[in-house]
């Protein structure tokens, strides 16, 4: 035996061994009833009928379930995810806007020209507050610069509302109660 041959046999040996282990012994299972059966035609028809109707029943059930399932509106999970992200984004934008408004209201001089975009502040010290009479008769002020609303409940209401405004006072229509008018 050459050196090459002996090496080949040595190499093949473990493979052959593994193959022998991996191959399970197959036993042929012979069913007990694998013999010839004899049925009369009527019984055979009954057997076939039962088998067919059972199979049809199962198919109808499956079909009905599939139809019910198909009627449900399909919601793409990616859409759900996108909507959630959009809502979160909008919430953040709204929060930032609210913070900016608050900060601008804190820093606003409520004077004409106090807006950062204006060239100069009013030399007369006129406020940028519009005084407005509500239909309830209450007088409020709205700064046209920072949109802050001054109500009689505010501590600095008197201070700002006594100052001369660069804007004309505005007034809502008056609310009349018809019942009061008739009386
Ligand atoms: Zn202001």
Rg is 46 Å
Outline the low-pLDDT stretches: none
* Sequence of strands across the biggest β-sheet: 3-2-1-4
Give the DSSP E fraction (strand runs of 2 or more residues): 5-15%
Structural class: alpha+beta
Bound molecules: zinc ion
- Shape from CA axes? elongated
Order of helical and strand elements:
HHHEEEHEH
**Number of helices in the DSSP assignment:** 5
What's the N-to-C terminus distance?
133 Å
Return the average pLDDT rounded to an integer. 81
The main sheet comes to: 4 strands, mixed
In which range does the helix fraction lie? 40-55%
The total count of strands amounts to: 4
Overview of this protein structure:
- The protein is of the alpha+beta class.
- Among the domains are: 31 residues; 32 residues; 63 residues, no CATH class.
- It is 51% helix and 8% strand.
- The longest helix is centred in the first third of the chain and has 31 residues.
- It is elongated.
- The protein starts with a helix and ends with a helix.
- It binds zinc ion.
- Zinc ion (ZN) binds next to loops.
